[in-house]
UniProtKB/TrEMBL annotation:
PPM-type phosphatase domain ranges (all copies): 164-452
Organism expressing this protein natively: Flavobacterium limi
Pfam families for this protein: PP2C_2
Protein name: PPM-type phosphatase domain-containing protein
Length: 453
């Protein structure tokens, strides 16, 4: 309203009236309350509509996510509670603002957040906000574990684990059927065998990986390993071994070209015959069963070892893509005792069943020899271990990768499963078998690992 000049005095008197002054104060206070209510309501809406992203979880895998109030701008929240975590395996720590636990169920977990903003009455109804946590199923649970056919003439157990003495040391071996085979109810194609010849002081360990494309490779790998043991049982005679012992003592005292040649000759003569014996045994079985030899394709690695007063003699042979690693006493050096038959395409691997490997110019390079004062571990493994843990062949010659591998075995892994390398540990075989159940995307082949420690 426009106040004319003639009514100025009247207006001044009007606004000075105590009743009107009080009315104005009430109006101003109501305006303030309305504005505060709007600001509070708007703030609550901001929190309700705010996007809160938390990482996905996986069933049976440790989970931890911080609900950072500083980052989210929630420092004005005076009451906070999470609902809907019951039976999920998760819980929320308000002090540390941490959602943690081991998820037990998969799916979209709807988490209800109840909160009150600073300025709301203590007895006001709590605000509700829903956030979604996606929990993926345990990938292991998606794989079937179907029994293999025990009525098959070449059936063998889907897994095996054993620990024993080996020379003056200990050995632990575990072999497991891969998930890809368990999923279809097919067989474990890996195998192993070992023996201590206590009377002559030698021990032998053999590991074999049956080819996935060969229908009877499970038998091929079994024959390969057992035949190596059989050969040395029949052919390690005292006269030959005494001669080798003498040459080795001379070589240790003073290495010469002559002693090196004699050692190489002994290694080649004895280990090549053992390898060929294995080849022949598989061939005989193929003929007996009227089957093609290639159906029994299998790799083969083995080591013949003796402990002397001056150290250990380690003699090896290898065909295929399974490594033998010898780690020195203080874990600063790795000696790869064989080169691997690997190719850039399928079919790069060679097998003990292939006659041509015995005529190949590279055959002599398949043998290894090392005389060491002492060692920490001698490890033989199939590619079911090598592929996920070392990935590429070049890593097998890096001591840091082997130390990572040993740390993994000793519990530094997602599952926290530990293999305790104690000579008095009666559970070590089971521990190794449990460790070998590790999850590695894309790596679901049979796994066999033998460790002398």
């Amino acid at each position: 309203m426009d106040i004319s000049s003639g009514k100025t005095a009247l207006f001044d008197e009007f606004i000075a009236n105590e009743e009107n002054i009080l009315a104005v104060k009430i109006i101003q206070e109501n305006q303030k309350i309305i504005m505060q209510n709007w600001i509070l309501k708007n703030r609550i809406d901001d929190v309700l509509t705010q996007t809160v992203t938390i990482p996905n979880g996986t069933v049976n895998k440790k989970y931890q996510a911080k609900i950072d109030f500083d980052v989210l701008g929630w420092n004005d929240i005076i009451y906070f509670e999470m609902k809907g975590l019951e039976k999920s395996g998760l819980e929320f720590d308000l002090e540390d603002e941490l959602l943690y636990g081991v998820p037990e169920i998969s799916g979209d977990l709807k988490i209800k957040i109840l909160f009150r903003i600073d300025g709301e009455a203590e007895d006001s109804v709590l605000n509700e906000k829903i956030i979604t946590l996606i929990i993926n199923p345990d990938p292991k649970s998606l794989w079937k574990n179907l029994e293999s056919n025990k009525n098959d003439p070449f059936w063998k157990s889907d897994g095996a684990a054993v620990s024993d003495q080996f020379l003056d040391r200990n050995i632990v071996i575990a072999s497991k059927r891969g998930r890809s085979h368990a999923n279809t109810g097919s067989y474990r194609e890996d195998d192993f065998a070992f023996k201590n010849f206590s009377e002559i002081g030698w021990s032998v360990i053999a590991v074999s990986d049956g080819a996935g494309s060969a229908s009877l490779s499970r038998k091929g790998s079994e024959l390969a390993c057992n035949s190596v043991i059989d050969y040395f049982e029949q052919n390690l005679n005292t006269s030959i071994l005494n001669e080798f012992d003498q040459v080795l003592a001379e070589h240790h005292a003073k290495a010469t070209d002559e002693t090196s040649k004699k050692i190489s000759h002994f290694v080649y003569e004895n280990l090549s015959k053992a390898a060929y014996f294995a080849h022949q045994k598989i061939e005989e079985t193929a003929l007996k069963n009227e089957s093609d030899l290639k159906n029994f394709h299998a790799t083969l690695i083995f080591a013949l070892i003796k402990k002397y007063d001056f150290g250990y003699a380690v003699l090896t042979f290898g065909v295929g893509d399974c490594p033998i690693g010898l780690l020195n006493k203080d874990l600063t050096e790795i000696k790869l005792m064989n080169w691997l038959d690997v190719g850039d395409f399928g079919g790069g691997t060679r097998f003990i069943t292939m006659p041509e490997i015995f005529q190949n110019d590279k055959f002599s390079s398949r043998f290894g020899f090392k005389l060491v004062d002492d060692f920490s571990y001698l490890v033989l493994m199939t590619d079911g271990i090598y592929d996920p843990k070392f990935v590429v062949e070049a890593s097998l010659e890096k001591i840091e990768k082997w130390n990572e591998f040993l740390q993994d075995l000793q519990g530094n892994n997602e599952d926290g499963i530990k293999v305790e390398f104690d000579k008095n540990n009666p559970e070590i075989a089971q521990q190794l078998a449990d460790w070998m159940d590790f999850w590695s995307p894309g790596n679901h082949d049979d796994r066999t690992l033998a460790i002398i420690y």
